[in-house]
Amino acid sequence: MTEITSLDDSTIAKIAAGEVIERPASVVKELVENSLDAGANRIDVTVSAGGTDLIRVADDGVGMDEANAVRAVEQHTTSKISSIDDLEAGVGTLGFRGEALHTIGAVSRMTIETRPQSGADVGTEVRVEGGDVTDVAPVGRAPGTTVTVTDLFFNTPARRKYLKRDATEFAHVNRIVSRYALANPDVAISLTHDDNEVFATAGTGDRKGAVLSVYGRDVATSMIDVEAEPDGPITAIRGLVSDPETTRSGTEYVSTYVNGRYVRAGELRDAIVSAYGKQLAADRYPFAVLFLSVPPDTVDVNVHPRKMAVRFDEESAVTDAVEAAVREALLDHGLLRSSAPRG
Ligand code: ADP
Ligand code: MG
């Protein structure tokens, strides 16, 4: 007869980690979101070997005192909501589940160095190994937080085995950090891989400047502004799209955001593509960085922490508005030969 037993806390944490932390890029995503939530003006991301050896995210945000730094790695601790009512009221932060640091700590060796912006002239270093806090000590540092994660999945060999080549893992990291850098031009965000700076945005608030840092000059100069305030379910559509000649074969450079949050939404991508009509060669995709503002109660962006899915109450009205806004921008710049939509 098989016996039913309860799982211990560390096993539960490792299983939970499998849900949220799939690869180095998932760690980077959680840490960068925390830095943004902490109000950072500057975020420096450093990785080695695609993030499989080392991931470090340093910020100049609000920081934590010793008690909070220790609490942050415990299970389901968050400073962002205190009850389900806060959730239903709509949260203005990226994270609120209070599980990221706990789960990352369960499947790696993690060090948090942090010092609050006010009220402490010394910082705290918390070391975590496979979920156990092994050391808490004072450390001298500037206000802000640095989280260092090494040996990801060292204690979950099955998961470690599924990691891809460093170059592939780094491509995922690059995509994630690029997404946040494009969405937050007022924050200086840098990415360094194996001692090479991949990009660094200035944090001056200029969207085109951020595109220039992340995608380079050729792409940036091909981008035109999209700016619309349609009636209906979208209150504003803003951002940049490339001219029809500046394209790639994959969809990864079509980035869409809803109320500031990146979403992977095929319906929005298709709407952007169809605005170009026949101007776009078959199987080519433009560069796009497009921000949609919609009333929070008409959209669900919290469908799943990892899938980045989105559900609109009035999907076709939303996609029509996006297509119209992009087409109008292209027409304004004389970039469409005819206004006939593609098929
Ligand atoms: P969540 O982001 O869902 O609250 P996390 O596990 O990611 O959960 O973080 C737990 C808590 O630790 C946060 O609510 C926040 O109070 C604190 N924290 C995490 N990262 C930072 C940071 N970079 N700066 C300041 N506080 C942080
Ligand atoms: Mg978080």
TrEMBL record:
- The yes or no answer to whether the keyword DNA repair is present is yes
Give the residue range of the signal peptide. none
**Cellular component per GO?**
mismatch repair complex
Keyword list (alphabetical) reads: DNA damage, DNA repair
The membrane-spanning stretches of this chain are: none
Asked whether the UniProt record includes rRNA processing among its keywords, one would answer no
Q: Which stretches make up the DNA mismatch repair protein S5 domain?
A: 211-331
Q: Which molecular function term from Gene Ontology is one that the record holds?
A: ATP-dependent DNA damage sensor activity
Single GO biological process annotation from the record: mismatch repair
Function description: This protein is involved in the repair of mismatches in DNA. It is required for dam-dependent methyl-directed DNA mismatch repair. May act as a 'molecular matchmaker', a protein that promotes the formation of a stable complex between two or more DNA-binding proteins in an ATP-dependent manner without itself being part of a final effector complex.
Family classification: Belongs to the DNA mismatch repair MutL/HexB family.
**This protein's name:** DNA mismatch repair protein MutL
Q: Which organism is it from?
A: Halodesulfurarchaeum formicicum
Gene label: mutL
- Which residues of the intact protein are shown? 1 to 343 of 674
